[in-house]
Amino acid sequence: MGSGDYLFTSESVSEGHPDKICDRISDEIVDVFLQSGPDARTGVETLVTTNRVVLAGEVRGPAEIDADKMEALARKAVREIGYEQENFHWREMAVECHVHSQSPDIAQGVDAGGNKDEGAGDQGLMFGYACRETPDLMPAPIQYSHEILRRMAEARHAGNLPGIGPDSKSQVTLQYQGGRPVRASSVVVSTQHEEALDQAEVRELVRPFVLDVLPDGWMCDEEEFYVNPTGRFVIGGPDSDAGLTGRKIIVDTYGGAAPHGGGAFSGKDPTKVDRSAAYGARYVAKNVVAAGLADRCLIQIAYAIGVSKPLSLYVDTYGTGKYDDCRLIGAIDEVVDLSPRGIRERLSLSRPIYARTAAYGHFGREPDADGGFSWESTDLAESLTAALT
């Protein structure tokens, strides 16, 4: 995102979107394996369609976490999201489990042993980003898109949004002047609803959530406020569209405002650097901005499977940094260990903290008392500043 005048758009999807149902189920399975111990391994994918859930992937952990246990977790997730519809119901849906043991070829590359440190669970490149557009140091379009749907979901679960179903999407387009967001030029919300509600009624149910989320005076013109623009959204969820784990990676990160390395997060234990290094990169980028060392910061880290040290560390502060980017790289190397083990231990990632990440973004969230969203902490800012001065 540049420094001139332009429009920029990001979207979010709710916990009831078919792809997000899959992310939630996969992460429920991650959590139950990590409850058994930090050496558990998971790489679990989910597919959902009309009244059917299919689980596949590989795991390492206690035998009691079997197909029956994973089926129960899938039903729990769907029930908590709120699906009790004719063609997708947590109790009535068929669940198939094709999960098997992790390949020993992968395990030997990841596990520590002898003089070998814990290696990366895969090759790849991961990005982290932070900017000053919101108090959470996130790009504003994605943060507002998430917040609209999150508040709608809270109201629905509390019984305060009658007639609205679990499946919904949002899209916020912001107008930027001089590289800063100043107002919404359009807002789109599509939400599943009961047949008795017409489009105008749904529009007025949605409106207060948009007004509450956007800053005062930022609401778009009425003709640019689109709610269920097709006119009807009664059939939703997996009955209307199949879902897959890991198919909303831009929703999960920065809404397109920064690059994404390509790897999904959900279903993966923290030895998979697709997940843990993306969290580590966000942690570093956020602390750079929180420390006042830059107004925008992009971090890229690259790994090879089975190798503990990062292959590269790249930093771009887009000309907003107080120090040269090369000096910043040196400070980061000095104060934080970006090996797979270093990230996992610093952020205490080998805990059951992942089901909560499956909807409304992995970033821009408040750290939880039990260690959830630990990568959103700004406890590194002072050390980074000291290393540069």
Q: Would you count the extended β strands for me? A: 13
Low-pLDDT regions: none
Helix content: 25-40%
Distance between the termini: 29 Å
- Major sheet: arrangement of strands: 1-8-9-10
Strand residue content: 15-25%
Please tell me the overall pLDDT: 94
User: Would you list the SSEs in sequence order as H and E?
Assistant: EHEEHEEEHEHEEHEEHHEEHHH
- Overall 3D form: flat
Main pleated sheet: 4 strands, mixed
Write the layout of secondary structure elements.
Layout: E1 6-13, H1 18-35, E2 41-49, E3 52-60, H2 67-81, E4 84-85, E5 88-89, E6 94-101, H3 104-110, E7 124-131, H4 140-157, E8 164-177, E9 180-193, H5 199-213, E10 225-227, E11 243-244, H6 249-252, H7 273-290, E12 296-303, E13 312-316, H8 325-335, H9 340-346, H10 381-388
Parallel strand pairs: 3-6, 9-10
Antiparallel strand pairs: 1-8, 2-3, 2-11, 4-5, 7-12, 8-9, 12-13
Helix pairs in contact: 1-2, 4-5, 8-10
Question: What does the model show?
Answer:
By secondary structure, the chain is an alpha+beta fold. The protein is built from ten helices and 13 strands. The strands form four sheets. The chain has a four-stranded mixed beta sheet with strand order 1-8-9-10. A four-stranded mixed beta sheet has the order 6-3-2-11, with helices on one face. The longest helix has 18 residues, at 18-35. It is flat, with a radius of gyration of 21 Å. The chain starts with 5 loop residues before the first strand and ends with a helix. The model has no long low-confidence stretch (mean pLDDT 94).
Label this structure with key terms.
alpha+beta, 4-stranded mixed β-sheet, 13 strands, 24% strand, flat
